[in-house]
Amino acid sequence: MRMILIGPPGAGKGTQAQNLVTTFGIPHISSGDMLREAVAAGTELGKTAADFMKRGALVPDDVVIGMVIERIGKPDCARGFMLDGFPRTRPQAEALDEALTRAGVALDAVVLIEVADELILERVSGRRSDPVTGAIYHIKYKPPPADVVDRLVHRADDTAVACTERLDKYHRDTAPIIPFYAARGLLKRVDGVGAPEEVLMRISAALQTVQVAS
Ligand code: AMP
């Protein structure tokens, strides 16, 4: 299964990706996680990306495209992958397409998790993640267990200002790639409002109709 998860920041892509990769046995490739790792490791790529990320701005296409295309060329992606947070712009979608065509493979599905902007801000401001396990919590909707609370991290770009900027970017740069995939019959729209388990059921149902190419 070669698939993409698309949705606004805070739509639940990371949470759903963690569940789905277990079901399909494919690697979860999050461009945001890869960039945060590069920033933490202090690599050249990380240094370039850091300022953009802190502001909630998109990291330039040439930086992100090379990083993700190289990653999906690794052997663990030979039988599929789940892309989360990439592509986010039309040039990224086109570069992905070219890379897959060169490799002689094709996408099987693009899942769009839909959540209204008004709900996003509340979700994102309460979001906390565990740097040890990668688990994502919400202080109100998915409270973390007491023994991990002290090590949880509130992402620097999960503030109201940065989130508004990211939503803006989503509508301007990312939403336009939706028709690109819809036109090829790959798009599955899923309502992202509700408990994570409910949303997972909706995604699984939407994917049941997908014919997976080898
Ligand atoms: P995310 O974890 O997907 O919300 O990404 C966090 C931040 O990383 C974004 O706000 C961007 O600054 C950057 N980023 C992640 N993926 C991309 C991408 N595909 N293109 C450009 N910037 C990205």
CATH superfamily of the domain at 2-115 and 174-207: P-loop containing nucleotide triphosphate hydrolases
Gross geometry: globular
Mean pLDDT level: 92
Low-confidence stretches: none
- Helix proportion range: 40-55%
Main sheet specs: 5 strands, parallel
In sequence order, what are the helices and strands, one letter per element?
EHEHHHEHEHEEHHEH
How much beta, percentage-wise?
A: 5-15%
Query: Could you say which structural class the secondary elements and strand pairing correspond to?
Result: alpha/beta
For the record, give the distance between the C-alpha atoms at the N and C termini, rounded to a whole number. 8 Å
Order of strands in the sheet with most strands? 2-3-1-4-7
CATH architecture of the domain at 2-115 and 174-207: 3-Layer(aba) Sandwich
Count of DSSP-assigned helices: 9
Backbone CA Rg? 17 Å
The ligands found in this model are: adenosine monophosphate
Overview of the structural elements:
By secondary structure, the protein is α/β, with parallel strands linked by helices. It has a domain at 2-115 and 174-207: Rossmann fold, CATH 3.40.50.300. The chain contains nine helices and seven strands, in the order E-H-E-H-H-H-E-H-E-H-E-E-H-H-E-H. The strands form two sheets. The protein has a five-stranded parallel β-sheet with strand order 2-3-1-4-7, with helices on both faces. Strands 5-6 form a two-stranded antiparallel sheet. Strand 5 (127-129) and strand 6 form a beta hairpin. Helix 1 (13-24) packs across helix 9, helix 2 (31-41) crosses helix 3 (44-55) and helix 4 runs parallel beside helix 5. 31% of the residues are buried. The site of adenosine monophosphate has 17 residues, from helix 2 and helix 3. Adenosine monophosphate is lined by residues 9, 31-32, 35, 52-53, 56-59, 64, 85-86, 88, 92, 157, 166.
